[in-house]
């Protein structure tokens, strides 16, 4: 056991002291934080305000376009040909042309631009025209727009889980789906990444012949276990540092981005919008803001409803146990070949279950209690990913314990088999190994 601890220490320190480890440990949180930081930063940049000329032959829509922070709408009282000639000489962003129709309500507009127009301005123009045409159709039918507005009703469906003891708990399917997919993908990536490090380390030591010196003082099985556990601790250290540094970066940016802003959402609404909207429009906008506030409250409730202790505990177990299972098999592959190019024929059968678990993710999150999800969460080669996808939806403890127990037994069995391959293959050089040859190694006493 003392020799294994020495190997673990050697593997751990030799890897965490590498420049590549330090660079990736610092770069990883920056890349992960950029997923949240960059969109928020870009959204905060104030671009130059763009001018959109409007030629409205109907005279209906031009007054309905309100200026925003990004766009200014300027009505132009000339024919379209003259407007187009003037537009190409101007520095304006776009020219909107709404033609006159004789037999029906105008429903078509043409947007001329020197560049590809943004989706925001197209969506805004389309929405303004759509609402105005709908209002005109309602009035033509003898209906008031306020009547249609009054009958619009939002339906809210609350989901409650009832456990075996009759206790009720509010649940959020959307949050469970996001957590399931995210944790499953992270487990998949980490198992592949760190198990492959074990395989490459074994190949490097084998080809450099340094392993001949090492095995003269320790048993091959001890060397394999020390290498597997050492790399596992490296991966766990890097993961925890990534989580901590990512939270620090995101939190720091959010605090600096807030900039001491003290206005509430409702106050900002009236300060920024009172000069742009009439009373009815301001009321509608206020209603939308209240709906967004309700959505934020629901989101906060959903985040608080997550059992973080269970999620973190399960993640650490299935990450470590899944990694140990696959690392033992990858170490056996690395000991059987002389170069990384020769590993493909042996890796494919081992990695197919892991890839299958990711392919089945969409089906699992839509039916987490189905028989396919159950059995895939029991099979040790797929359980690390599949069980992490099921846990946010609620998994009976007997299933969770059974999956853990089977995974531990599978790891012990795989380690025993991998050890038999490792002790023979680690000293084999210059020979193309086949499945028949590996089968012979397994039968050696």
Describe this structure in words.
With 445 residues, this protein is an alpha/beta fold. The protein has 2 domains: 50-143, Periplasmic binding protein-like II (D-Maltodextrin-Binding Protein, domain 2, 3-Layer(aba) Sandwich), CATH 3.40.190; 177-257 and 305-443, no CATH class. The protein has helices at 2-16, 19-44, 80-89, 119-140, 145-151, 173-207, 210-214, 220-258, 265-273, 279-305, 308-336, 344-359, 361-366, 371-378, 383-390, 397-425, 435-443, and strands spanning 50-56, 71-75, 94-98, 110-113, 159-162, 168-171. A 4-stranded mixed β-sheet has the order 2-1-3-4, covered by helices on one side. A hairpin with a 5-residue loop joins strand 5 (159-162) and strand 6. Helix 8 crosses helix 11 and helix 11 runs antiparallel to helix 15 (383-390). It is elongated, with a radius of gyration of 31 Å. The relative contact order is 0.10. Mean pLDDT is 77; it is low at 260-278.
Q: What count of structural domains?
A: 2
Specify Rg, calculated over alpha carbons.
Answer: 31 Å
Structural class determined from secondary elements: alpha/beta
Order of helix and strand elements from N to C terminus: HHEEHEEHHEEHHHHHHHHHHHH
